[in-house]
Design goal:
Oligomer: single chain
Number of domains: 2
CATH class of the largest domain: Mainly Alpha
CATH architecture of the largest domain: Orthogonal Bundle
Distance between the termini: 30 Å
Shape: globular
Number of strands: 0
């Protein structure tokens, strides 16, 4: 049974006043009325974790729209990664197909790596990808990006720190 004060909670009021509008917003944004309720729920779960909320109606809608839009972008990015992974799997012979559990773990890791890469500044991300995926030496990366080789080393150090943090999070050593 909920406490008698649960209905007085600011998030309850926010939900009551704005959920129908936000559901329509998400349906238009996603192009799917089926996915909108899930992201509506996720939006308000994020709101619960926020220390402060705006107090005027326009500010509340902007606040909710910003959170919901970020969740939409996360969903689209996740679907892109998942599609690419499934396409790569489809090109593999059946003998090397992972189990559903392995696929889920790999997909979750790929999504985390994608999020980490997306959070890097553009030149840091490009340096990292050119070095790690293309095997390009730092000197060539520097020429390509129009920066010094020393700057590429700084970019790579920054990317490696992000990788170390991601690894620690995935291992459960760090908590958000």
């Amino acid at each position: 049974m909920s406490s008698p004060h649960a209905l007085d909670h600011p998030v309850h009021r926010l939900y009551t006043q704005h959920a129908p509008w936000l559901l329509r917003f998400l349906g238009r944004r996603l192009g799917s009325r089926m996915d909108a309720p899930d992201l509506l729920h996720d939006t308000f779960m994020r709101v619960l974790g926020r220390p402060r909320m705006p107090t005027d109606e326009a500010g509340e809608r902007s606040f909710l729209a910003a959170i919901a839009s970020g969740l939409c972008i996360d969903r689209w990015r996740r679907r892109e990664v998942e599609s690419a992974y499934l396409a790569a799997l489809a090109s593999q012979p059946n003998a090397v197909q992972p189990s559903p559990e392995q696929s889920a773990m790999v997909l979750e890791t790929l999504i985390e790596v994608d999020a980490m890469l997306a959070s890097l500044p553009p030149k840091v991300r490009e340096s990292f990808l050119l070095a790690q995926l293309d095997g390009m030496p730092y000197r060539q990366i520097a020429e390509r990006l129009g920066v010094s080789e020393r700057m590429v080393k700084k970019y790579m150090a920054q990317a490696f720190v992000h990788c170390a943090v991601l690894g620690a999070e995935l291992d459960g050593v760090l908590v958000e």
